[in-house]
Amino acid sequence: MENPRVSYESNEYSKLLQMVFLYGSNQQDDYEPYIGNVMRRIFEAFSTFEYRRGPSEISCDPIIIKALNNEKYETYFENLMCRLILDSESHTRDGIISMNNLIFFNAISCDDKKRTARDVLCFMHLLNPDHVAAHLEKDKTIIPIIKSWEQNILSDSDASKTNGITHTSGCENQTPLLAAN
Q: Which among 106, 142, 100, 108 is positioned nearest to 125, based on CA atoms?
């Protein structure tokens, strides 16, 4: 007997990837209050399943970074600010966000949260394109958009140095990037 495939609609991980995509592509701003926690969950699941390591470990591991096979990607993701954000307050470790972290997360602009969402998806896709494609296969337009974001990283020479994270108080909802829900 053939094993039935887990349906896309019932797979929470696939739904969370879809949420990050929709937020990062400016299609669903309503996710802003909890998108940081969603990004943390998917990136933590991906890094644990694929590499048996935490998110900050895979974005800092020189062997994994070299697997990107592109110096600009390597520099960009090695410096990626989200490695600090996504793993700093994992629910599996502590579950409590300190006041200092709340202040830091509140200072990140909405645009930078969206950029981080795009970066997380790009990083995952560059490391394992089949994994990301399998979870987002329902909408055939998503992978070409993620690939265009990857090209934007290559073409933006300033982004490869700093990741462009800016701090501002102009975010309408001002919620932590990794809010504990």
A: 142
Task: Read off the pLDDT of residues 51-90 as tens digits, 9 standing for 90 and up.
Answer: 999 887 887 888 999 999 999 999 898 877 544 444 444 4
User: What's the domain count of the chain?
Assistant: 1
Is residue 79 domain-resident? yes
In-domain check, residue 176: no
Which range has the worst mean pLDDT, 24-28, 100-104, 120-124, 177-181?
177-181
CB-CB contact of 32 with 64 (8 Å)? no
Angle at 67 between CA 38 and CA 111, to 5 degrees: 35
Residues in Cβ contact with 48 at an 8 Å cutoff, skipping those fewer than 6 apart:
54
Domain housing 150:
10-162
